[in-house]
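Database export, one record per block. Field names are fixed; values are copied verbatim from the stored entry.
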Amino acid sequence: MRTRTRKSLALVGAAAALSIALSGCSAIDGLLNGKGQDADRDKSGNVKEDAEIGIFNLKVGDCVLADANQNGEMSSANVTPCDKPHDQEVYFEFDMTGDTYPADDAFQEAAAAQCIPAFEKFVGHPFDGSALDIRTMTPTPDTWNKMNDRKVQCIIVDLNGAKLEGSMKGKAI
């Protein structure tokens, strides 16, 4: 089973804080067993129908059916076409650097430096004062060390936990 960690990004002024709630044991063994199918996608890479995918198949532009407040290790995600109501949208991703798994504050700083400017560019509205919030999907120590996983994904959710309608690209909310 493939796992990555979902975190919440909460801003207070210019400072960012990430909260982590890990679910427990690692599931690296499943990674080596070839688990984790992808969704049926159109030529542009958009999800065509609801599907449960392996977490490493989650891509920028994917819309996810999930609890918007859920944190912790994840091995799969339930994706849906973005024209259907959904809880989250992956809007940006970047790679962390280094050989050693970063401390939480390094993930915090990177998320603030990368996800917030990308949010404004994607949504068309500054993060401060938006009706939307940001979550991040980050490597676990095991995927970092055993799979060279460095990808951090920036994810949009509704600030109040409401369903998102359509892609948030250019919504200016």
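Remark 1: The two ends are 36 Å apart (CA to CA).
Remark 2: The chain is about 15% helix and 30% strand.
End of record.
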